[in-house]
Write a structure and sequence with these properties.
379 residues, mainly alpha, Farnesyl Diphosphate Synthase, two-stranded antiparallel ribbon, 19 helices, globular
């Protein structure tokens, strides 16, 4: 098989597997939402409006794929998710994807809530999201905030109900660890912290501080209210992106790996992969706001510059940002190569050579192809 043929086969397998996992999420995504009293029916409508607006479902797909990888599964050329294949192909983990599914949906609830709040007039004030009017444009500012709050709360309902429902004593601590990972990533040690710093570094926020009576000076710069005086832009930019975007992506991979029973060694490498992937994702997002196609993106570009946000192309320029995305993609792939070496050593998947044309191809292929696919969006 030539390299061109092999690359085409890799892409075909990756795309089929992504679709299979995404379809699984889509089939149950709304079913976990709680029933809402008729007297608050508009709240449920607002929650579902954003939740069912499409998207790549990257985070839940990553969670399910990580659970499969850690659970010792393999992906056949049929692209039928191994979580629903016979236990003989799974080393006893025949329902690993089914176990992880509530947590995958919870992650998407959290992501959707963050988008609703991010689009809000008090934040980015966006009119479009995925080619549709944003939530506050349809349901009003107040109801949009409540819809986001409802989705965030529902995410925790889903995770803890899944943990309470398990009859397997070995699953319960894994489920609780996974929920803790997601909770940390969604909160003030993750996504909310990144969002706060992102807002704090906009032109309008900087201007309001400089015009206030307690404007930053040498003495005040020791206080947290003057963080932009204590840290350079490069430091702040990495912090914002690591938390605002990267934290939930990383938690998705870690939570899936934990549910799948990953060893500490595997979990460390999967974390390294996810941390780099999260940064690639945000660099790509920053770049698309400059060089992307509005019709393809389903939203207006140039918003970051208009708000005076701290971004990779704003700080480093387009060309250097593309180089950084490529470098971090390489680091993510390197982590998967190291992980594959460990899997080969342990013969975890009963496929010692893991060649692409074997019946059971390299279980890390999905993750490497995903990273490459993401980076190619801006090259």
């Amino acid at each position: 098989m030539s390299k061109t043929e092999q690359d085409a086969l890799k892409k075909e397998i990756y795309e089929a597997e992504y679709k299979a996992l995404k379809d699984m999420v889509e089939s149950v995504l709304s079913s976990y939402l709680p029933e809402i009293d008729d007297r608050s029916a508009v709240l449920g409508d607002a929650m579902r409006y954003s939740l069912n607006s499409g998207g790549k479902r990257l985070r839940p797909v990553l969670l399910l794929a990580a659970a499969k990888l850690a659970g010792g599964s393999c992906i056949g050329k049929s692209a039928v998710p191994c979580g629903f294949e016979p236990a003989s192909r799974m080393g006893g983990n025949a329902n690993i994807v089914e176990k992880a599914l509530p947590y995958a949906c919870a992650v998407e609830y959290i992501h959707t809530y963050s988008l609703i709040h991010d689009d809000h007039p008090s934040m980015d004030n966006d009119d479009l999201r995925r080619g549709r009017a944003t939530n506050h444009k349809v349901y009003g500012d107040g109801m949009a905030l409540l819809a986001g709050d409802g989705l965030l709360n529902s995410a925790f309902d889903v995770m803890f109900e899944a943990a309470q429902a398990t009859a397997d004593d070995t699953d319960l601590p894994l489920f609780m660890r996974a929920a803790a990972e997601i909770s940390k990533a969604a909160g003030v040690r993750g996504m909310i912290a990144g969002q706060a710093s992102d807002f704090y570094m906009t032109d309008s926020a900087r201007s309001s501080r400089s015009n206030s009576p307690a404007a930053c000076n040498d003495e005040a710069a020791t206080d947290n209210s003057c963080a932009d005086k204590k840290y350079d832009d490069a430091n702040m930019l990495r912090y914002i992106h690591k938390n605002k975007t990267g934290a939930l992506i990383c938690a998705s991979v870690r939570a899936g790996a934990i549910i799948g029973g990953a060893s500490d060694e595997l979990l460390e490498l999967m974390t390294e992969y996810a941390e780099n992937l999260g940064l690639v994702f945000q660099i790509v997002d920053d770049l698309l706001d400059v060089i992307g196609d509005e019709k393809t993106m389903g939203k207006i570009k140039g918003v970051d510059e208009k708000l005076g946000k701290l971004t990779y192309p704003g700080l480093y320029g387009v060309e250097r940002s593309q180089e950084l995305a490529e470098e971090m993609t390489g680091k993510a792939i390197s982590a998967m190569e190291n992980l594959l070496f460990i899997l080969n050593e342990s013969k975890m998947n009963d496929a010692p050579d893991m060649h692409i044309d074997d019946e059971n191809y390299a279980p890390t292929l999905f993750f490497t192809e995903l990273a490459l696919d993401l980076q190619k969006r801006i090259t």
